[in-house]
Amino acid sequence: MVGQDGAYSIPLNGETLWFFGDTLIGTRDPNLSLWYLDGRSVGAADMSGKGTIEHMINNTGLILSETTGESGLNKFQYILNKQGGLKNLIPLHPDEDHDEIRIWCQHGIYLGEMVYLSFIKVRMLEEPNGVLPVAFEILGSGFAKGSKKDWNFERLLANGTDLWWDKTQPRFASAMCREDDWIYCCGVIQDDKQTQNCYMARVKADQIEDRSKYTYLSSTKPEWDENLDNAIPIFSGIPNELSLSYNDYLECYLAVHSFGLTGITVGRTAPHPWGPWSEPVDLWKVSTKHDNPRPYPKMIYAGKEHVELAKDNGQTIYITYIEFEEYFPHLIEITLDKL
């Protein structure tokens, strides 16, 4: 494995499933950009067989067997297929062209003996102006259900489609958390002014597979509405990926996300999953240096916390981010203090 992004983590009662997006198998040439193999951008098509990349897998996972602090990261095992290679957790369907469609990771949750993985389906595009090495459009989001016994996942259908929320709607669930019997789901979408807004859905845990049972925050009172058109954002200026969890040390909920593509990871706090949310506070700023200049703008993304690694009752937290050229998760330890 020479590169992967995403890096969502899902606690599994003593273990943790880490869920990744595009995963690259092969070797890397230190003199070439990962995204400009053979002297040109990789483009929209599957990267398998291009340059030094033997195989690209849309999404993969590993099991972390210890969940306390950085020492636990030494004990993990990738989920493998029958041939001994990295397993594609949510594979493409036969009618989905691997040179066009990809299934990328979002968050997930473990309920009973079943694992629910959230995903987005994207269509890859050729970059029209050549500024970025890859381009895509998001077609929508949905859920896949599977078991720890075999790690085989099947996409769940709602109204005959695996896209529970289409490209005009927030991409639930880019982050999930549970409070009592309720599952809270974040979903992000860009408005007409090019601002990324985060919305909140909720559903009873025992109704997670029923799309019709989801309601959406429509008022800060709070009020919840079955009609997504009436939803209001909980905060703005956020990429698609984030984390959301209760922090015992801060005695409130903590959301962690990248601030655009700037390299800054921020945190926000709220008394409830739906808010009211604070303004963002800087947690970490990435400093990058490459021996060879990138032939495209800097892209740092996918900032999020991994709550199962927290120490000292949540005062010490662990976050990851991805720098596109390096293309693997960085782990950062942060010690919080109360204002």
Detail the topology: elements first, then pairings.
Layout: E1 3-4, E2 8-11, E3 16-20, E4 23-26, E5 53-57, E6 60-64, E7 76-78, E8 101-111, E9 114-125, E10 135-147, E11 153-155, E12 165-166, E13 175-179, E14 182-190, E15 196-204, E16 215-219, E17 223-225, E18 235-236, E19 243-247, E20 252-258, E21 264-270, E22 281-285, E23 300-305, E24 316-323, E25 329-335
Antiparallel strand pairs: 1-4, 2-3, 3-6, 4-5, 6-7, 8-9, 9-10, 10-11, 10-12, 13-14, 14-15, 15-16, 15-18, 16-17, 19-20, 20-21, 21-22, 23-24, 24-25
Short account of what is shown:
The protein has strands spanning 3-4, 8-11, 16-20, 23-26, 53-57, 60-64, 76-78, 101-111, 114-125, 135-147, 153-155, 165-166, 175-179, 182-190, 196-204, 215-219, 223-225, 235-236, 243-247, 252-258, 264-270, 281-285, 300-305, 316-323, 329-335.
Q: Key terms for this structure?
A:
339 residues, mainly beta, Tachylectin-2, Chain A, 6-stranded antiparallel β-sheet, 5-stranded antiparallel β-sheet
Measured as a percent range, the helix fraction is under 10%
Highest-level CATH class:
Mainly Beta
Number of folding domains?
1
Helix/strand-derived category reads mainly beta
H and E string: EEEEEEEEEEEEEEEEEEEEEEEEE
> In percent, how much strand structure appears in the residues?
35-45%
Total number of strands? 25
Overall shape = globular
Average predicted local confidence, pLDDT: 92
**Helix segment count?**
0
- Poorly predicted runs of 5 or more residues: none
The CATH superfamily is Glycosyl hydrolase domain, family 43
- CA-based gyration radius: 19 Å
| CATH fold-level assignment | Tachylectin-2, Chain A
Biggest sheet character = 6 strands, antiparallel
